[in-house]
Structures are given as C-alpha cells and as structure tokens.
Amino acid sequence: MKIYKLIPFRKLRHKLRDHYNPREICIDKNTRCLCVAPHPDDEMIGCGGMLCLHPDNFDVVGMGSSGTDYKKRTAHEHAKTRTGEFHNIMKKLNIKNHWIYQTFGVRGVEQMNAMFRQYIRDLDTTKYDYIF
After folding, report:
1. Chain CA centroid to CA 40, Å
2. Predicted TM-score (pTM) of this structure
3. Is 97 helix (H, G, I), strand (E, B) or coil?
4. 74-98 pLDDT per residue, tens
5. How far apart are CA 59 and CA 30, in angstroms?
6. Residues near 116 by beta carbon (within 8 Å), at least 6 away in sequence
7. Which is nearest to 67 in space by CA: 87, 47, 39?
8. pLDDT number for residue 57
9. Which of the four, 35, 39, 77, 87, has the lowest number of CB atoms within 10 Å?
10. Are 70 and 78 in contact (CB under 8 A)?
C-alpha cells in the first residue's frame, strides 16, 4: 500500500503523491543514523524496522527514562525498570551505541525541559546522515 493512500483528503493526497519518493532514504555500510526517542519503547514504535535492518548504522538515544511514580513503584524504581528494558532491547538488536537520560518528576515534556541544556551539550547531530 502506498503511504499517500492513508491520507484522507484527496487534494492533499494528490499533491503528496507527486513529491513522495520512497527511495529517498539510502542506508549503506557508511551511513550514520541517529534515532531519538522521547521515552523507552518509542524507538521501536517509531523506527524499529530500520533498527532491525541496520543495527550497525544506528546510535539510539532515549531522551527520558519516564521516572514517575507508577502504580506501586517509585519514580526511581520505574525509571530503573524502563532503563533496563531499553538496554536489553538495544543489546538484542546489536545496537552498540545507545544511551538514555535519567529523568524524574512529572509526566511529559517537563522532565525533558529540565535536561535541555545537557542534550545540547551531549548530542552532536552533525555527524549523522539521517536523524529519526
């Protein structure tokens, strides 16, 4: 199925069809890719297929560990569980370069706002051909 058929508005669909080229992304052995995920598991939801096909090409960063109180777990316990799951999946996929920031507090963007300066310091996006 062509992706533009998923778009409900006919005029928009026709405009996009003329500009959509599914062969635009070309990953060879020297291509460097970065997958940026807001939380653990979003990397798999967003581009799990690409990670499975090209594990040697990808670095993966989790922007936050979802450290919030959850059911009977404290924020630190929840973050530790999510971080462990993230590292286990990366190991199974053979993604060598992966890291996740430890974030705690309220849900959502507020956790990541507190880390924004550190993200800017740590992430050198100039070395990547593609960022997902």
Report:
1. 8
2. 0.74
3. strand
4. 888 888 888 899 999 999 999 999 9
5. 13
6. none
7. 39
8. 97
9. 77
10. yes
Please name every residue paired with 78 in a beta bridge, in sequence order, or none if there are none.
none
Q: Which two tokens stand for residue 56?
A: 């040697």
Kindly give, in sequence order, each residue whose CB lies less than 8 Å from that of residue 87, ignoring residues fewer than 6 positions away: 98, 100
Interacting residues of 119 by C-beta distance below 8 A, sequence separation 6+: 63, 101, 112
Confidence of residue 118 (pLDDT cuts 50, 70, 90): confident
> Is 105 exposed, middle or buried, given 0-12, 13-18 or 19+ CB atoms closer than 10 A?
middle
- CA 6, 12, 14, 20 dihedral sign is negative
Determine the pLDDT at residue 22: 58
Tens digit of pLDDT for each residue in 7-44?
A: 456 666 566 666 665 567 889 999 999 999 888 888 88
CA pair distance 124, 110, nearest whole angstrom: 23
Q: Are the C-beta atoms of residues 118 and 111 closer than 8 Å to each other? A: no
